Amino acid sequence: MVNNDLPTRNCREGLVHSTRNLAFWTGAWLLTTALMTFGAKLLWPGNNTLSFITIALNLAAGAAMILANIRHLRVQDELERKLFLDAAAITLGVGLVAGIAWQFYGNLPSSPVQPQISHLILLMGGTFLVSLVVAMRRLR
After folding, report:
1. What are the C-alpha distances in Å from 79 to residues 5, 39, 64, 66?
2. I want to staple 50 with a disulfide (CB 3.0 to 4.6 A). Which of 4, 44, 70, 96 is the partner?
3. Which positions, given as ranges, span the membrane (predicted)?
């Protein structure tokens, strides 16, 4: 008797492994971002050598996260890939449009806030999650 579930099971196992790998590198990037940001302020103020090392670590973790994302896209089926890419496209558009407007608003003399990159990161992360969840719910 032939086991027809084997290719499906292997695809699912590959997707689970890819998801874990992506989560690991995303976590590593977040940790190095926090270390880069708060380390220079709280742990080693004025030590440029440590700051440059954490910047290099952050860039390396970011590159690994990007590669993990590419690998993750390759193991997804067509529908999962479409949902992911649609959410990514919406996120890019929202980030670009809102980021430019937010920066312009922050440059106004009467602006009570100073735009920070963290604001844009939070907006883009939230946009991606909401876009992906909405797209997945539409399929039900």
Report:
1. 19, 41, 25, 21
2. 44
3. 22-44, 50-71, 83-105, 117-136
33-92 residue pLDDT tens: 999 999 999 999 999 999 999 999 999 999 999 999 999 999 999 999 999 999 999 999
Tokens, residue 17: 């492994």
Question: In the numeric block, which tokens belong to residue 30?
Answer: 């977040």
pTM over 0.90, yes/no: no
Residue with tokens 């994302």: 69
Q: Which amino acid is at 121?
A: I
> Which residue blocks in 39-77 are alpha helix, DSSP H?
48-75
DSSP string, 96-128: HHHHHHHHHHHHSTT-SS---HHHHHHHHHHHH
